[in-house]
């Protein structure tokens, strides 16, 4: 008798091959049969009318602190994710000395918009070195598997102190000490090394992340550890990725292609379309492909499955947040009272007449443009048309855009939210993302799950990729369901050497989703105060996940946790060269 049999579903196995009707039998945490299974299971799951997929593997998260207090790792757990990789963008919490703990919290708060008070309250520090951090994570129970990369910012600050935090050049002695830490981390089970080079990533102090301006000798030495050990991924957010101006837009790709070819390891780097140079992404993708085909590099542009967008609302951020009247009289009020006060004609008149009291330091990158503010409906749409924007609504009514935006914000109970794409929506179309998704060497990531929690809610991307690209898209070509599943299961798992998951095949880890695909739907984003110290964040749930299994244990049924916590720490990426399903 099997432990579990998922019966009579449409099996989408992660390879990209055509779906087929069949059963999936599981014993001892592994898949033992796929197809027609005659034996019974101690637990039978009826998947008739549903698709059955591998669990989703999200390679770009920032759960480094949350993993120590939240066994569910919300909101990713509500979207079929069964493995996450954290420690991205050069930020994390190890290695660290006790006096520098709050500094690392400030770094994470500034770069990833996770409330510092929540991190200070929630993290139970039990480590100094990176191996000790992994041991602390391994000792905690959770619903899904987690893996970690060693972050450049923490390593640099640990070795160089204030010089490292201030981005001073590293000496040969500094570099030797940093490579020793990275080597120790990789031996202990780190999945890779991460860094950030975009000047849009700033600590809470306003300083760029340590490593932003690291010279090639430092980068090549740290990347060389991965080559020496024959394992791990080099992950980064390159300069220019946030849309900041660059004299040489191809500078980063030039050194990345040399480093990857030299050390024989994959480099995955964030790539978005940006409004300043909306066609630059195409040239970078072509350069990466050429380097892979002719130079022995393994460049893997990491792309988003939907626009990188701020969720605008009275509980997150909005255009009137910096107006003096709002800041001084309204910002501290509970939502219901704030909405009532904002509807007062005199308060409304004053706020609309005022200029912001303070300047957004990133405003030059993302100007206030009501052509790109889109009200969310009951079913969130991540590819809205120009005619759906606040500017278009105002034009049809013959009204001022700001007045319309203000009135929409305070309508109803004040929980109306808006999509404001920052990157990946330069031409009001997802056709560029469609083209990126079809590139074999581009991988899907950049969900930033666990991060930007007061502004962004892209942890739900695995769900929106299924609904939008494989089912609902009406403004352009769709993608096959089998292809979409492959892109967020086997391809992401294989990049990080996690070749025991991501496929529904005998011998593979029994991480499985049973999904009512016809009725799969995202709920609107919602602002809650459930972080430690009462910190607020955006969450987004979904309907249609009938069951999620991790290592053969059912963790969620119809979106509700069963109590099972089979998740484990994933250690040690294996060599991914030539990986095939």
UniProtKB/TrEMBL annotation:
<dbReference type="InterPro" id="IPR011059">
    <property type="entry name" value="Metal-dep_hydrolase_composite"/>
</dbReference>
<dbReference type="GO" id="GO:0016812">
    <property type="term" value="F:hydrolase activity, acting on carbon-nitrogen (but not peptide) bonds, in cyclic amides"/>
</dbReference>
<dbReference type="GO" id="GO:0005829">
    <property type="term" value="C:cytosol"/>
</dbReference>
<dbReference type="InterPro" id="IPR013108">
    <property type="entry name" value="Amidohydro_3"/>
</dbReference>
<protein>
    <submittedName>
        <fullName>N-acyl-D-aspartate/D-glutamate deacylase</fullName>
    </submittedName>
</protein>
<dbReference type="InterPro" id="IPR032466">
    <property type="entry name" value="Metal_Hydrolase"/>
</dbReference>
<dbReference type="Pfam" id="PF07969">
    <property type="entry name" value="Amidohydro_3"/>
</dbReference>
<feature type="region of interest" description="Disordered">
    <location>
        <begin position="561"/>
        <end position="581"/>
    </location>
</feature>
<feature type="domain" description="Amidohydrolase 3">
    <location>
        <begin position="43"/>
        <end position="556"/>
    </location>
</feature>
<dbReference type="InterPro" id="IPR050378">
    <property type="entry name" value="Metallo-dep_Hydrolases_sf"/>
</dbReference>
